[in-house]
Write a structure and sequence with these properties.
By secondary structure, the protein is α+β, with helices and mostly antiparallel strands. It has 4 helices and 3 strands, in the order H-E-E-H-H-E-H. Strands 1-2-3 form a 3-stranded mixed sheet, with helices on one face. Helix 1 crosses helix 3.
Length: 120
């Protein structure tokens, strides 16, 4: 796997910041209020972008939010082109990020093991 250059890392950060702002302003009722952009990977040629989305809620809320974001992808791309000055505006693919929930589950399991551990 190729290491990201400094330029690509800065572009990822800027696109992530702007996507967060754009998603926050969307009026689609399917998109949950507690939706955040946890990471962005833009290809070096600036043609494609993977946006990792974290949604607080159950599986239905995640599915609805993902459907709403996919439906609004054209508008989001247009707004991104307006706010970020790039040679090419990337095509955005939204992906649900499960890492935060996985971390919370592991933390609960560790706490449970420590609680059941007998003092010596």
């Amino acid at each position: 796997m190729r290491k990201n250059s400094i330029k690509n890392t800065r572009i990822n950060g800027e696109v992530q910041r702007e996507l967060s702002n754009i998603i926050r302003e969307l009026k689609d009722p399917r998109i949950g209020m507690m939706t955040s952009v946890t990471g962005v990977e833009v290809t070096p040629d600036l043609k494609f972008c993977k946006a990792y989305i974290s949604v607080l809620g159950d599986e239905q809320a995640k599915a609805d939010t993902l459907a709403g974001l996919k439906n609004a992808a054209g508008f989001v791309r247009h707004e991104l082109a307006r706010t970020v000055n790039l040679r090419n505006t990337p095509e955005i693919k939204f992906i649900i990020d499960e890492s935060i929930e996985y971390g919370m589950k592991m933390s609960q399991l560790i706490d449970e093991v420590n609680k059941n551990k007998k003092p010596e």
